[in-house]
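Dissemination and training. As part of the outreach component of the grant, students in the summer workshop were shown how a complex can be specified as a set of sequence lines and then modelled as a single object. The example used during the hands-on session is reproduced here so that future cohorts can follow it. Participants entered these lines:
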Amino acid sequence: MNNAGTSRSGTPQILFGLAVGILVIFVAVPVLLIFFNALWVHGRFNVADVVNVLREPDTYKALLNSLILASGVTVTGTLVGTFFAWLVTRTDLPYKGAMKVLFLVPFMLPSFIGALAWKMLLSPRSGYINRLFVDVFGFDGPVFNIYSYGGIIAVETMYLFPFVFIQVCGALERMDPTLEESARISGADLFTITRKITIPLVLPSILSGSLLIMLYSMAHFGTVAVLGIEAGIYNIPTLIYERIHQSAGSFDAIRTGTVLSMVLVFTAAFIIWLQNKVLARGRYQIIAGKSFRPAELKLRGLRVPLLLFCFAYIGFTIVLPTTTIFMVGGLRTYGLPFALENMTLDNYHHILFEWDLTRDAIWNSISLGLASALITMFAGVIISYVIVKMKVRGKGLLEFLGMLPFSVPGSVIALGVILAWSGKFGINLYNTVWIILIAYIARYMAFSLKANSAALEQVHDSLVEAARASGATMWQALRDIVIPLVRPGMVAAFFLIFLPALRELTVSVLLYGPTSRTIGVAIYTLSEDGRFRSRPRSRARRVRGHAGAVRLRQDHDAAHGSGLRRYR
Amino acid sequence: MKIRHLLQLFCFALLGLPGFAAQAEEKLYIYTSMKESLIGELKKAFVAKHPDIKMDYQSAGAGKLMAKIAAERESGTILADVLWTSEVPDFYQLKAQGVLQPYVPAEIKALVNPLPEYDGSFTAVRLGTLGIAYNTRLIKDAPKTWADVQKPAFKGAYGIANPALSGTAYMSVSLLVKAFGWPYIEGLRANGAKMGKGSGQVVDDTASGDLLASLAVDYITLDKVDKGATLTLAFPPEMLVIPSPIAIFKGSPNTVAAKKFIDFVLSKEGQTIVANEGTLPVRADVKVPDRFHLPPVAEAMNRAIKIDYKQLMAEKEATIKKFTGIMQK
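and obtained this result:
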């Protein structure tokens, strides 16, 4: 591309090749390799492990639990995410800009930290809220029990609904409001318009968000491990974790774990297939060659009650647990009561200014987050284009390969990445920061594919056809028409990747080396020390980093607005 | 934001990723489950003594490290030169698979050796102990025997870490079963004892009052006591003493540096650092600071429930299954 002599028509081929190459080599190979290693032992099919896994009643109990938890989280997360997205984009709710940012806060925190905060607040024995009810209001026993299916679903919902929220916000911003206006003129009320016009039109984004929630929750370990163990609730990831952690340094035990994770892959394949079935039934191409400007619905009498509701939600699910964590960060040691003599700033001071790992970790995480988010975003938009818009044989396979790493726990990905990139096949990136970058791309490709596909579903084919008819090349049509129109999807993808990458833990902890510690690893190191109180420090930094990220997003939005104006 | 700007941002991001420069000096890489403060202190002191050795370490839970090692072995080479965790059975297994390079430290005579059939494949460098940590805000009568936590005072609020996730918890459960039989575990459960996630978590929960007491690792508890937690660690007469072995991997290109490190950790200076973190050293001539109230090494070894490592490894899966079955009934 840097060669001026290269013909212009060569560029798209190179880009497509590059994107598909990234998908196959970085994303698919490690996972496929680990499954190959799991199923093929010394030249023979590994019957014993497969039979064992299939015969173990625990497998089915865990799968059932996984499905119960994931379905619960998907339903509640989708409802919450869609509702708030609609509220902050399409209504005249006050302070909605600030709220949009606040709703993203949970996404920046590792969910196991959230689980710990909720445990502190709602554990039946010593949870602060339960104590309040018992000690102050004179209740006989604890009111809430966080160690339950309901508790786990509620906590996961609080941390996963941004998957839907971010994408639906993007979809609502780019949808054609004239459809709503015509319904309104025909006499439909707000509720009917929302139900019959708005929701169906942004269905691809809602579904792609809920698919991500479902897959994430299926493969999610942290919350269940922290909150489920007391009540004997376990899922497939906690079983895999136990197997992998009992390996004693031999790959045989890891094989059982990876065979088990194939259960997740099959479930994921089924869910993806189901989503495509649903999407295939409707038409969602709502961005056609017309002008559109966002119109706000007047909430009228509902304005104040809804505002209060948002404040309550933010206060209860975001401010309360986050404050709890920061307060705990100020305790001399975890477990002391919140009294003035137990509070200190030493912890914050130690991490921010004394601990030499902090600066490296923050720097590494930001670089890794930016690099992986940008690469994955661009590769994702091109691959999504192939999947959604082009009529190519085998594109379903591309989508499946892209989603594959997301449907299994992070530790399985990390092990696959070690197998693939530690020199066995000629390239040794092990113990460098590059191997973490590759692992992040693999892990987060699904976010980019889903966000971009959903955005592309809404772009009408007629636009590209018009450009092509006017003599534009495929590449020009893509660059000048499609990319600007799906930019909200790309921006959503960027943040869906950048924010979790900043705090990524499961993959990094298995891959980090002396020069490549990340924020997640730093937090983990401190928490493994039994020094829970030390964690929030790096979080303080991160939140500051996020403030920057949020500003960046607003810049994107501004650019997006101007970009669109050009195409009106 | 234009694509060009994004590309610039991207290049900037790539610049941030440190490259991998070749180093000429002697190198040493350690995988350890020791906490950051201990391994960090040791590194500082070791590097001061051997400035020519570039030492670094990866500290993570033993389970994670072993999974990493498994994947590394599967793909060809083990990256680390030295392994140091508290999971003795892992070391027996690695030794059986011929992955360890025996090294008998010069000072072996000055050390307490808790490991039978010692051949230098791995050497104990500290002795972890487990006792009953209880919250002094809520419990006034200190538990004196293992059976005390079956009393009504501890109803519904005694915790043990998940033995499937923590090797230390597994060894403790297995030793308690060896000494008192399964009825002891059933008695705990009948009194509402709970299984927690990890060794750190049960102690955290005890400090917060979510649990009244827990089966607790010494240094985790004592570190919190140091910082003001209202905890006390009680040792019943039958002690749980679990060694942390260190070993060199076969085929390591840095065996000379590795041996120097092992010698250093076993030296009086190294053992003093170990003792200052609230764990028993393996040298009789190094004392644990009085504020920790740990019994002397010789006494702890006498009171310890004897460990049969072969049996421990053979019964692991069955024991964990039975324990989980009882605790989650």
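DSSP finds 13 helices and ten strands in chain B. Students were then asked to discuss how this feature might be tested experimentally.
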